[in-house]
Write a structure and sequence with these properties.
The protein is mainly α. The chain has two helices and no strands. It has helices spanning about 10-50, 60-95. Helix 1 (about 10-50) crosses helix 2. The N and C termini lie far apart (about 55 Å).
Length: about 100
């Protein structure tokens, strides 16, 4: 049975449930975006301190630990997510230099 073949009252209930769940997803997405912004700020601070001390902007061994953490939790897609997060977070310093 699909949404189109449900009785009208069931359709309304289903649509309301979907709307509520999507609203919860939107709240989580807003939280994730805020956390990513905070992570980018912290990463930029680490990079600035490292560079000021004469080090490299990126520490690949640390990035590998992060990638592994995500991959262990979510598989190959988790590793890809980690790579994108790291790319976002290391981009801020590059753009300002």
């Amino acid at each position: 049975m699909t949404l189109q073949t449900l009785p009208t009252s069931d359709k309304a209930t289903t649509e309301a449930a979907i709307a509520e769940l999507r609203s919860s997803i939107d709240v989580l997405d807003a939280e994730i975006l805020g956390l990513l912004e905070r992570r980018r700020e912290l990463s930029e601070a680490v990079q600035e301190v490292r560079i000021a001390a004469g080090g490299r902007r990126t520490e690949f061994s640390r990035e590998n630990v992060i990638i592994k953490r995500y991959a262990d939790r979510f598989g190959r897609q988790g590793g890809a997510i980690a790579m994108k997060i790291l790319e976002i977070c290391r981009g801020a310093v590059t753009a300002s230099r």
